Amino acid sequence: MKIRTDFITNSSSSSFVVLKDSEYYKIIKGTEDFHLKNGDDTSRCTGVYEGRDLLHFITGEWTEESFGGVHQLIAKHGLENLALVMISDEWMGGEFPYPTDYSEILFTMEYH
User: What is the number of structural domains in the chain?
Assistant: First the structure.
């Protein structure tokens, strides 16, 4: 298990869903390394999936068991309001700060 600034995960990459109007999302959107990932990008690099790319990513490579909670969030909040944030612990694709308000994280998953 790795502990990064109080953010705990077993994964070498942290992956979580937040609302696009959350304070955390506003912070990372203003960072130099912020970039959107294409839905067919299955790398573990830092980046963000939104909209159709988010839907393509979770339905293209992953099972309902892995990302079923994201489908529930889409039904509740709308696809246009969600973002899947991926952070590589090896700084591949850049670096985002980790969330400090964990209540903004709607769903987490192990990715790699």
Answer: 1
